[in-house]
UniProtKB/TrEMBL annotation:
It comes from Pedobacter xixiisoli. This is Uncharacterized protein.
């Protein structure tokens, strides 16, 4: 009798302990962050400007916790979007191109600390689902069309579609060219415009692009309001304030007169969780140093070497060049002053607003504004 009783109870115990899967197709996309994740998974939170620069992102790696209308999403990356007013800045250019600053979170304390540091909301408003196979793309599209009908062709991509589901306050973006399904709750978003790197600008009717983009970067620092501009001197070898690329280590950077208002950030490899790069950032002045991370011990400052820097807006610093370059110098004049064999993108200069200069093991990128005047630089 006891044996029969235990046999009957065992399936019930298993069903009680098994983690229930979350159907993302049914999500209202306003759930508390803590309710849509499991700390048994690999979780990373922070900034990823290529994926989406204007909100906090929480990536879930290798999870078996999610489905989409019955389709198992095991093995697919799931990324939740979390509102953060602090990230409404010109972050794509400020971070010198694609920027990743994702930190692992292991428990609720880690989550709450990250949300607080970014001034973020405690609930999600969007989800981005990776689609790595043609079969998964086809299955997901079939489910969406069965529920919402045929989508509108995205004019910015070859195969993209989108839906404006007004009764559910949702936008759905099927972006197979970029292996993404993106769904956002638009309750607090523009009802006429949408933009991200994988979909381009979508006009739902009456979109004012300029006004919309201004809203996305409304917290950017205005150059004319910047105070305490760092004094910067670039030598003929493109080293900065005596800090030598490939030789100066983190300890020397920290002790230098240049280090006045930088914040240290660690960039993690999403697949391993190891520190891949160290960044010293001065967001107020759009000034950044990049350092290679010592594989054995990234906290050993003597083993981390400066391998690049970015000054994204010369109006926010006081900068001079030993080689004769000047802030606001014309694109054409700089091209004429250089040996064309040193220009990495020489064949594309007719279409570029930047000049790439080869220099030993790194590249110097000079950036120009809308009037093609020298306005910033990136060396790495």
């Amino acid at each position: 009798m006891k044996k029969l009783l235990l046999t009957a109870i065992l399936p019930l115990m298993i069903s009680c302990t098994k983690k229930e899967q979350i159907d993302l197709a049914k999500s209202s996309l306003n759930e508390p962050v803590k309710n849509v994740i499991s700390y048994d998974n690999d979780l990373f939170i922070g900034v990823q400007t290529v994926e989406y620069p204007f909100s906090l992102l929480l990536e879930v790696e290798n999870s078996a916790n999610y489905t989409f209308d019955g389709i198992d999403l095991k093995g697919q990356r799931v990324i939740f979007q979390i509102g953060s007013e602090k990230l409404k800045t010109d972050s794509i250019t400020r971070f010198g191109g694609g920027h990743v600053d994702l930190k692992p979170i292991k428990n609720e304390n880690d989550l709450n600390a990250a949300l607080k540091s970014y001034g973020a909301e405690s609930k999600i408003y969007g989800v981005r689902i990776e689609m790595t196979t043609p079969e998964l793309k086809a299955e997901i599209l079939k489910k969406i069309e069965a529920k919402y009908g045929k989508g509108t062709k995205n004019p910015n991509t070859d195969n993209g579609l989108y839906w404006n589901i007004k009764k559910e306050n949702k936008y759905i973006f099927f972006a197979p060219d970029y292996k993404r399904l993106i769904i956002v709750n638009n309750s607090n978003l523009s009802k006429t415009c949408y933009w991200d790197i994988m979909n381009g600008m979508i006009d739902f009717g009456g979109c004012d692009n300029e006004k919309y983009m201004a809203e996305l970067v409304k917290n950017s620092t205005k150059p004319e309001d910047v105070k305490g501009k760092p004094v910067i001197k670039i030598d003929k070898n493109w080293n900065i304030n005596g800090l030598v690329l490939g030789k100066t280590n983190e300890e020397e950077l920290v002790k230098s007169a240049t280090n006045k208002s930088f914040e240290r950030m660690s960039e993690f490899d999403g697949s391993t969780g190891n520190v891949s790069q160290i960044i010293y950032q001065d967001n107020y002045h759009d000034f950044y140093f990049y350092l290679s991370a010592n594989k054995a011990n990234p906290e050993n400052q003597k083993g981390n070497l400066i391998n690049g820097y970015a000054i994204n807006d010369f109006r926010k610093v006081a900068i001079t060049f030993e080689n004769g370059l000047k802030v606001g110098q014309k694109f054409a004049d700089i091209v004429k002053s250089l040996d064309k064999t040193s220009i990495k993108n020489y064949d594309d200069l007719k279409f570029s607003n930047y000049i790439e200069i080869k220099n030993q093991t790194y590249t110097v990128t000079l950036n120009f504004d809308e009037n093609m005047l020298l306005s910033g630089m990136y060396v790495k």
